[in-house]
Amino acid sequence: MAGAGGDSARTPAPRRRRPGAIPTFTRVQVETDRGVFMISVAAQLAKMHPQTLRMYEARGLIEPKRSPKGTRLYSQEDVDRLRRIQEMTAELGLNLAGVERVLRLEQEIEGMHAHIEEIELQALQAQVRLAEELEEVRRSFRAELVPYRPGELVRASDVRSPFRLPQRGGPDDAA
Predict the structure, then answer these.
(1) How many CA atoms lie within 13 A of 37 on its CB side?
(2) Interhelix angle 39-46/50-58, nearest 10 degrees
(3) Other CB atoms within 10 Å distance of the CB of residue 138
(4) What is the pLDDT of residue 137?
(5) Which helix (H) or strand (E) holds 66?
(6) What mean pLDDT comes out for the span 90-109?
């Protein structure tokens, strides 16, 4: 029993809200791949028995993170994957070997999509490089091309190009 006169170990009384006051909430955003749920919470969220989660881990269907003391920590992505496994077994009638195969094929497809995106990026970069090189070749040809007058030979140095500025003191500067 606490003695009178202000015991410092006593917890303060909860603050009462004013009538009509709007309650405040704090929302915490956590990465979806961060392990935050212990096995019992993850099992509840996935609507499974914790032993089922252990069995799925043993089969390699799920890989929860581990705390420094070895406690399994499931992420939101893990819970979503557990729900997906349950959907494949319960609604689609797949056994766990079928689920493993489907998940492996999906992973391969994801890798192929990433590879295709990489190849498309490389192709786009090559296309840009080729366009730049083509423009360079066009510019060099433009500088070397001269008009052709039938029956005459015309030297490039004798032709005044509309693209070049006249040089001072040259044959074009007859003043």
Answers:
(1) 21
(2) 100
(3) 10
(4) 87
(5) strand 65-66
(6) 94
Which backbone phi and psi does 98 adopt, to 5 degrees?
A: -65, -40
Q: What is the mean pLDDT of the chain?
A: 81
Q: Which two tokens stand for residue 11?
A: 């917890």
φ and ψ at residue 73, rounded to 5 degrees:
-125, 115
DSSP 3-23: PSS--TTSPPPPPPPPTTPPP
Q: How confident is the model at residue 76 (pLDDT cuts 50, 70, 90)?
A: very high
Q: What's the pLDDT band for 29 if we cut at 50, 70, 90?
A: confident
Under CATH, which architecture does the 31-93 domain have?
Orthogonal Bundle (1.10)
Give the start-to-end residue ranges of the domains of the chain: 31-93, 95-144
Phi, psi of 72 (to 5 degrees): -70, 135
In this prediction, residue 148 carries a pLDDT of 66
At residue 25, the 3 state secondary structure works out as coil
